[in-house]
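Hi support team,

I submitted a single chain yesterday and got back a structure, but I'm not sure I'm reading the token output correctly. Could someone confirm the output below corresponds to the sequence I sent? I've pasted both exactly as they appear in my results page.

Thanks,
R.
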Amino acid sequence: SQYSRNRTLGAMLGKGYSTKSALMEMQMIAEGYYAADSIHQLNEELGVSMPILDFVYGVIYENKNVKEEAIKLTTLLN
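Hi R., thanks for writing in. Yes, this is the structure output for that exact sequence:
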């Protein structure tokens, strides 16, 4: 949905908001915010590779640049 919290968070991050700023402005939590962290931790424990999740986690939790990471992900998946 165009009004979902996850989509809103992603759009704000894509526009250059920091995760903290986006979450504060939204005044609600996108469930994907916590899910990305949980899945990332599980992947690390299991040694599983999930490039799309790594992209999302990097942008949300490690403040990586969205455009730069998207280029890396696209290259990796091609």
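A quick pointer for reading it: The chain is about 75% helix and 0% strand. Let us know if anything else looks off.

Best,
Support desk
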